[in-house]
Design brief:
Shape: extended
Radius of gyration: 30 Å
Strand order of the largest sheet: 1-7-9-15-21-23-29-31-37-39-41
Largest sheet: 11 strands, parallel
Number of helices: 3
Distance between the termini: 99 Å
Number of strands: 44
């Protein structure tokens, strides 16, 4: 009975929060179903105790920002934090600076558990103009953390993650745009997902004797903002990516990882990098995948470029190259400045190489020189002379025979079927 009274008394102290003075004005003009939130903070908390047992939870949350929230001639608009604008748009969600840090802890005898999951949204302003289905937010940072302990041992799990970027997000005459991190632009586009650099470093730690730690960091980076113009089905991650007049485009900046496992006896790390300088560019192309930065596709279909430095132009057959650059010193028989380079034959046969720990693998697809690209008439002449179907390389004569047999079979069936008068 006493423990129940203590719990009820603690629940009575539950704070729904205090609303601060709004630093931004909320304005809705000629709009329907608008929700606008300026500077606000809440801090709910609950604590309960009993003999040898304690439990507590809290979830402080704040929305803070500068600038005004404006919705003009729009339908279904949600704006939080200030600096958000929606004009002649429908289904718009815009988030400015906000933060929350929910946490919970419990102790029973000598066993304790503590969990927290702070999340914050930072960044500049968001703008949607004549767009439908837009979600925009500044940079996002999260750091969930769980710790459990028993006498002599402990377990810690952490998964920090962030989406970086700076500047404003803009969606202009676009449908289905998701923009995170700042500096993203979607113009006359449909189904666009844009994100600044992404980083994550989940880890697991075991305390006691013996102890162990494992960390798995991953970074997908890039410089600048992402831009999609007159494009459909675009995904851009890391910054510095551009898609113009293209469909089905995936662009990712340089990717690096260095998983590490350590014990009291030592540690082991396996770094891996897929990188390149600059951003990725796709122009008037269909079905393009670019990873690593420094890739360019123009007037192309079905292009995959990895590692940077790749370029594919319209009408040109692609050539695949794989370079293995050793992270250590080169053997005495090889120059220290370069690693082995493997180039496949022009018939596009795949190249297979052994996997070596501690090396960096770079894979890229490049175009053949313009002088070696066959013209349309030359390509037709080669198809006839080789007697093969284009693209597939299957025997042309075989399919001519099959087609002739099917034609004769159809005529025979037709002659056996009586025709009504």
């Amino acid at each position: 009975m006493r423990s129940k009274l203590i719990a009820l008394a603690a629940a009575g102290v539950f704070a729904l929060g205090t609303a601060g003075t709004a630093l931004a004005d909320n304005n809705a003009t000629g709009s329907i179903a608008s929700v606008q939130v300026g500077s606000t903070s809440v801090a709910p908390a609950v604590t309960a105790t009993a003999p040898a047992t304690t439990a507590a939870t809290s979830a402080p949350t704040s929305v803070d920002g500068s600038g005004n929230n404006n919705a003009t001639s729009s339908i279904g608009t949600v704006q939080a934090g200030g600096g958000n604008t929606a004009s002649e748009s429908a289904g718009t969600v815009q988030a400015g600076p906000a933060a929350t840090a929910p946490q919970a802890s419990a102790t029973v005898a000598a066993v304790s558990v503590h969990a927290t999951a702070p999340v914050s949204v930072r960044g500049g302003s968001n703008h949607a103009r004549r767009s439908i289905g837009t979600a925009q937010a500044g940079s996002v940072h999260a750091r969930p953390h769980v710790t459990a302990s028993v006498p002599g041992h402990s377990l810690t799990v952490t998964a920090p993650a962030s989406i970086g970027g700076s500047g404003s997000n803009q969606a202009d005459r676009s449908i289905g745009s998701v923009q995170l991190g700042g500096g993203n632009t979607a113009r006359n586009s449909a189904v666009t997902v844009q994100s600044g650099p992404i980083s994550s470093a989940p880890s697991i730690g075991l305390g006691g004797n013996p102890g162990a730690t494992a960390v798995f960091p991953v970074v997908a980076g890039g410089n600048g903002g992402n831009t999609a113009s007159n494009s459909a089905g675009t995904a851009q991650i890391g910054g510095g990516n551009t898609a113009t007049g293209s469909a089905g485009t995936v662009q990712v900046g340089g990717v690096s990882s260095a998983p590490m496992i350590g014990t009291g006896e030592g540690s082991a790390t396996v770094p891996a990098t897929v990188g390149g300088n600059g951003g990725n560019t796709a122009t008037d192309s269909i079905g393009t995948v670019q990873i690593g930065g420094g890739n360019n596709a123009s007037g192309s279909t079905g292009t995959v470029q990895v590692g940077g430095g790749g370029s594919t132009a319209s009408g040109g057959p692609a050539r695949s190259e794989r370079t293995l650059a050793s992270s250590g010193s080169a053997p005495a028989s090889q120059p220290a400045s370069t690693g082995p380079t493997l180039t496949p034959e022009p018939d596009l046969r795949p190249v297979t190489t052994g996997s070596v720990l501690g090396t960096r693998h770079t894979v890229q697809t490049t175009a053949a020189p313009a002088s070696k690209r066959p013209s349309a008439l030359e390509a037709l002449r080669q198809t006839v002379s080789r007697a093969t179907l284009p693209f597939t390389g299957l025997a042309l004569g075989l399919f001519m025979v099959i087609g002739l047999m099917l034609t004769m079979l159809g005529l025979g069936v037709r002659n056996r079927v009586p025709v009504p008068c």
